Amino acid sequence: MLLDFEDYLRHRQLAQWAPDGPEAMAMRRVPYTARKDLTDLTDAQRWALYAPWLEHDDPSVRANALICLIHQVNYLLDQQIEALEKRFVEDGGYSEQLATERLAERTRRKRAAQKDQTDRSDQSDRSDPIPECPQCGRAMALRTARGGRNPGSQFWGCTAYPECKGVINV
User: Fold this and answer.
1) Exposed/middle/buried for residue 46 (C-beta within 10 Å: 0-12, 13-18, 19+)
2) What is the 3-state secondary structure of 19-88?
């Protein structure tokens, strides 16, 4: 839509507002002058804030106002995507979180079973195929190296990564 409104102005030889021009800056100040969170306003109240531009008799003012609003939406979407990317890197994706929870549940069950066991010192201890982290004691996850010295090789990495960087070679 942004290109459509820019084309509209260009084909009719109408001026496009400069991004830092007085008209564009006045539109950018609207949320700050509303004295309220815009999400608390009704659609009619929000429309009224921008009505001087969107209901203007000059079509170039309306087109420029819509261009400003599109730029504001794009900026906000970019901020949201950046925040989601950061959260994904910090917390991992859904599958990774699910695997972490599954491993944590296995660890809880293992510890509960160890508490319930009485003295079985004469029997050999059956070890869980999932090792515990040598640094923090949490469950490890089997991972595959993507780069570094041994790309494609598997290793056990701590499920608390990036806080804990415990590793066990397979």
Assistant:
1) middle
2) CCCHHHHHHHHHHHHCCCCHHHCCHHHHHHHHHHHHCCCCHHHHHHHHHHHHHHHHHHHHHHHHHHHHHH
Instruction: Per residue of the chain (170 residues), give pLDDT as tens.
Output: 999 999 999 999 999 999 999 999 999 999 888 777 778 888 998 899 999 999 999 999 999 999 999 999 999 999 999 999 888 888 778 888 888 888 889 889 888 888 877 545 444 444 557 889 999 989 899 888 888 888 888 889 999 988 999 998 88
- Name the residue ranges covered by the structural domains of the chain: 2-90, 130-170
pTM of the model: 0.55
Calpha distance 170→168 (Å, rounded): 6
Is the CB of residue 128 less than 8 Å from the CB of residue 100? no
